[in-house]
Each structure stands twice: as structure tokens, then as C-alpha cells.
Amino acid sequence: MESPAPRSGPMLDASSAFLLVVTIFVFFLPLLIYFPPVPPSQRDALLETHAPIGRHGPRHEARDGRSVKGPPTVRSLCIYPIKSCKGIEVRQSKVLPAGLEFDRIYTFAQLKSPFPVGVHTPDDDSTRAHKWEFITQRQFPLLATLQVDLFVPDTIKARGRPSGPPVSDSDAFLLVSFPWQEPGLRGVLRWAGAKITRWSWRAQPEKEMLLPVAFPSDGEIETRGYAREPVAIWKETATALNMARELPPELQLYLGVSNRLAIFRIDPARLRRVYRCAPTMDEAGYQPVTGFQDAYPLHLLNLTSVRDLDAKIDKDEALRVLDPRRFRANIIVDGGETPYEEESWKKIRVVPGPASTRQGSEFHVSCRTVRCKMPNVDPDNGYRHPREPDKSLREFRDVDEGAKRMGCLGMQLTPLFDEPEKLESWIEVGETIEVLERGNHVYIKQ
Ligand SMILES: *[C@@H]1O[C@H](CO)[C@@H](O)[C@H](O)[C@H]1NC(C)=O
């Protein structure tokens, strides 16, 4: 009888193979975390000296909170530094003639041509015949998925690093980010890196770009090669600063824009004047203006009115609940007694609580907001619903003599100021609304 052959030496049994794998994993995991296969993000770099203000998306106060009974109250404040992109929810904000501070200071635009231009047309000629036109989620719904963070200098962090360059208040930045995976192995590494560094299976690799909040100085305009150019917004044209050089080329592919793409910064010295339903210069004490807002400086929305419309919409898989963020308001209110009470307001005062040292803010309620199809775009994923809420708005909210067969929801506001020499005030979540004047609204078309 032969004895069983001795086991050969280098072979591993199952348990030691398992141990080996675990050891390798445990050894490499910290390496992957500390030296991830992705370049350091601009967000991480900014966080060394700056802090983001406000918050985003899912935890939106106005979406999750229940509306309360009581006097009309400010429930949420939102700014949209880049038109048509994601907004930022803030606790308080400065009110300036052109609306909430930092609201709609940038817009994307595409170069439109009135006639085809040949390959051999000299560049000069072709750009002269072309015209920049602003773009919105109606044409490019993926704009809704562009995340915008506002970073302001953090004095505490700055104090901790005495050797670093001093940070000043004008050093605020917008960080724009969008999901983007590069082709090939590098893309795969970044994909894995995003999940490891952000500790989430759902994390996606992103592309980032940085924009200054302050309007660039003449020197910067020259060195960075920005240009002052006309850009059409609805039926108006504003002369603004073309800062297309800051755009990563991937953005155009991501959004699906086939024309040339640019980003424009509104020039604070050349804001657009507002007439139509806005108070006149005599009434307001200054000439009402806007930045890249659609038509008026601010937009107010009543949360309960959104819920009322929501109850009337035919729901489906793609639209389960009408998210108030679809309407891109600046001031979201609730409370009040009579249905759609906000539509009877002509002038309001937003009153701070007794503990506040602030003066509050005053607004001329200029007209109703006539809706286009943009609320059909889902603010979370950019999906454009084929019908709703456009259909229900036209059906149930055709309420303005000046805008027949159109749906209206929300009100357009123009700020009023106590001291005409200091055109600024403050507004804060939780403040209550006192109605100073009531009346009827008739929309005036552009
Ligand atoms: C908001 O809308 C609801 C329902 O239409 C209404 O009862 C309430 O008075 C309104 N509140 C304000 C502040 O306009």
C-alpha cells in the first residue's frame, strides 16, 4: 500500500488564499484613499480657504416641509447664480435692485446664425453675421443637472494658514460641476476613484470649472481675453462679458449644444432696464433693472398654490409629485387664508422677527408669472416631461386677462428701498409678510 502523496509546498489552500487577498486589500485600500487615481479636485483645493454657502437639492426646505397655517411667511430663499442651472437654497440674502445677491449673474449662450456660413468664410465675417442667444433648460434640459456651488472666503480657515496669500471678500467663486467620464482606461480609473474618494457607490466622476463671482477688472478682461458682446435674452439684447475661455470643451458635448457655446457675465454697469408692469422710476425712486432674470428682478411662489395645482395634475412614473423647484422661484412663501392670495398683492413688506436688528424689505408686486414649458423639466435629472405641468397650467391657471390661454403661477417682484441712496435690504427665512396694498393684475406682454 502506498502512502498518500505529500502535498506540494507552494500550493495554497482556500483559507490562506483568502487571507492573502484580505491582506493585499487592507494594504492597498489606504493607499487608494490617500493617493487616489484621480487628480485633486478644484473643490478640495477651494475648501482649504473657502466655505460653500447655502445648500442644494434633495433636502430643500420648501419641498419637504409641510405648509403651516398662519400669516404669510417666507419659507425658503433660492438663488440661481447661473441661469437655468441648479440653484442654491440660502437662509438669508441681501436684496439689491437686480434681485437677490448673486442671482442670475451668469447665463450660457449659443452662437446662432441667420444663414449658413461656408468653411471658407473668414472668421471675422461669420461672427459679425452671427448672434449670441441665451440658452435655457427648454432647449437643453441637461442644464438642470449642472451643479453650482458658491464658495466665499472663510476667515477662520484663512487665519489657520498665516503663510498663505490673504483672502479678500471679492474672492468668491462659483464652482460648476457636471458628470463626465473620459474614454479609455483613464476614464475607468476616474470612475473607480470617484467612488473611493467620495465613499459612495453612486458617486460619478465629474468635470469642474471655476468662475469668479466679482465682475472682472479691466486688467483681467484684457489678460484673460474676455470680450464685451451683445447677447440676446428673449426679445432684448444686453451687452455682457463673454467668458467662453473658462469653459471646458466637454461641457458642450455634455449639454448637446452643437453651436458654439459661451458663458456671459452680466455687467453691473449695464443691467437691463425693466418697464412694463414694474414701477416707474418716479414710483420706485430708481430705475428698476434686472440681470439675467427672465424679465423682473425676483420671483415669488406660494407653496400651497403649487400643492393645489399638484392635486389637479394627472400623475405618471415620470411625475409623481410637482416639485416647487421646477418653478425656480427666489422667495417661497406659505400661510395666508384666501386661495391664491398672492395674486391680490400689489405691495408687500417682509417683516423681521422682534429679535432682529434688521429693517426688513419691501417689494412692488409687479405682475403674475406667465409660465413657459420649462417647469416640465425635472430639476433632479433634467428629464423633460412631454405634457405636465404645462397642460394643467394652461387648463387651470388661465387667469390673467393680459395673458390669455397661458398658465400663470407665482408673482414677479421689484424691490423697493427705504433709502434711495442705499439701494439694499435683507430678507431672511421665517420673516412674515405684511400686505401694504392690494389690487388687480393685468399682464403686459413683451
Ligand atoms: C397660498 O395659497 C393658498 C392656496 O391657494 C392660499 O390659501 C394662501 O392664502 C396663499 N398664501 C399666500 C401667502 O399667498
TrEMBL record:
It comes from the Eukaryota. Residues 269-436 form the MOSC domain. The keyword Transmembrane applies. InterPro entries: MoCF_Sase_C (IPR005302), MOCOS_middle (IPR005303), Pyrv_Knase-like_insert_dom_sf (IPR011037). PROSITE patterns: MOSC (PS51340). One of its GO terms (molecular function) is molybdenum ion binding. Keywords: Membrane, Transmembrane, Transmembrane helix. The chain crosses the membrane at residues 12-35. The keyword Thylakoid does not apply. This is MOSC domain-containing protein.
